[in-house]
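User: DNA polymerase III subunit beta. Structure?
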Amino acid sequence: MNAREKTPDQLPIGSDAATSDVAVHAKLELSAWCCAIVAPFIAKMGEARYYLRGINVSPAPGGGAIICATNGHAMGIYHDKNAVCEVAATFKFDSGTLAACAVGGAERLVVMRNNRLAVIDQHGVEVYIQPGSPVIDGSIPYPSYERVIPRAERLQRGMVAAVNGTLIGLVTQSTNVAERALRRSVYMRAIEFYNVEGDRNACTVARIADLPDFIAVLMPMRVDPVSSLLPEWLNAARSAA
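Assistant: Predicted structure:
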């Protein structure tokens, strides 16, 4: 397989294919903490859909970038208003890059230097440089956040679907990152949930009042509803009282 052919994951650094793919991202500039916010939603290494094992970045209408990650069961999306992104792409973020993004406050940036992703501080000093080409082969389109997020007129307050607690935990991880980066209060942990027209088989949307540019979409679990609203032992205890 040569460098111009598709690869199952990242393109090899230094090849013609890698250089051309990375070169179009030379002006890339992302708020590091925004990348860390969606990072919990990245698919794990065992996921067969390799194109989900990264963070997708695309130009936002009106400026900035939409930063998105999904594991196929939940999607986290953030609008980085200060970002510079000219071409949509999915980037590999290794553990060192993610660790550098999650600390250092809101001043750190993710940029492209010498065809590699780098995290820099407010003085432009490189905190971490990720080895290898960061561009994940984009021959398979990344899931469209515009199609995944329901329209506002269909949303109602409250959660009606059964949702895997692990997926809710991903949203909690995002709030923890935001708190550290923005040095806000614990009120950022207040998560509001919305359902789609009362359909328990539809997705659940998570929103955070103190983080208005973030949204998460959680897919439901297909399970039978509980047989009674309250446990039978409680009904029995109240009847005996």
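The mean pLDDT is 87. Residues 28 and 85 are 5 Å apart (CA to CA).
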